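Q: Sequence in, structure out?
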Amino acid sequence: MRTKRKMWLVVAGIMLAAVTATFAAYFQSFETDTAGWTGATRVPTLTHGVPTKIGAFHAEAQNNQPFTFWGGYSETFPPGGYTTSVDIYLDISPPYMNGVGYANDTRFDWTSAISTPQCGHRRDFVFNAGFYTDIDSTGAGPRFVISASTNAGRGSSFPKNPGRTPYTISVEGWYTFEHRFRDQGGVLAVDLTIKNALGVTLMTWTLSDPSDVIGVTVGGNRYGWFAQNEFPFLGFDTSMLLGFQDFCTVPPSTAGAKVTAGGWIPVVNDKGTFGLTAKANANGTASGNLTYQDHGVLARTVKSTAVTSVTLTEGGRCARILGDAKVNNTTDVGFQVDVCDNGEPGKDSDTFSIVMSDGYTAMGTLGGGNVQIH
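A: Exactly. Output:
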């Protein structure tokens, strides 16, 4: 009896997921819930024969079109750009998830969209994917053929479009569908990349339109969405956004949350020291204080002027704190801090990361200190 692909490097993968969750602006591995997604069904590993990529649970699109806002829409394109990704299971060989197989030209579209600076919709960037059993220039027998465009749906896109450099995948398993949003001389460019389960790049398409001017017509992140899905069960896992988010609407705090943390993490040539207190009252109003100092090559002193959101994540083991601050007592910036309380003692266990709107980032496991989440 064949089981659906192998659970490659599971232990290492779980460790990587735990680290990534701390440092991503948005992260959802479906291990505890489906928070941040609408329409996603959380299922245990081996549901419909599919082994979860990392951990014990993943999600399915079940004859529907799940979507995520990546934690919230953003109005400003961040320095250094940002990246979104999701892992999708390509069901190519029997036994099929639906038990019988799929008709030739069964499709799904996965898009990651960008907003305008006014938080309206600007443009979609879409992986157009289809399952095929026919014979043509893209191959023969069961396979997925994938291309990239700015359109979704049967009436507006075609995975085999020869003008879109279609790519064929004939090996069943987990694949990462990644969007890298970047500044190319003031104009938005998006690299749509497919990677295999080991993280090896298989294919990249780059889409850019000269009218997508950063800061003029282009703002920050919008949604991730299975804009078309003709599969009864489509497995997906490990969705994330990496980069600073300048939210159109500040995410609501977790009422009653309380976080205290202090210590240091390694930075280039020295330490990054921090002290943090943050809480949300019973009405969800956030308050607190952050101090952070990079003593290394990127030396800076950060002092918060406002804490605007305190949210518990990962089942209450981690917390995200948003706010405003001054750098070196002069420059106004936004910040996002993520901390995780991974047990006692905090040294070599707890984690701290900070991402700032001017492009500064630092992250790591505590070399000393402690994180407490109540």
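The two ends are 47 Å apart (CA to CA).
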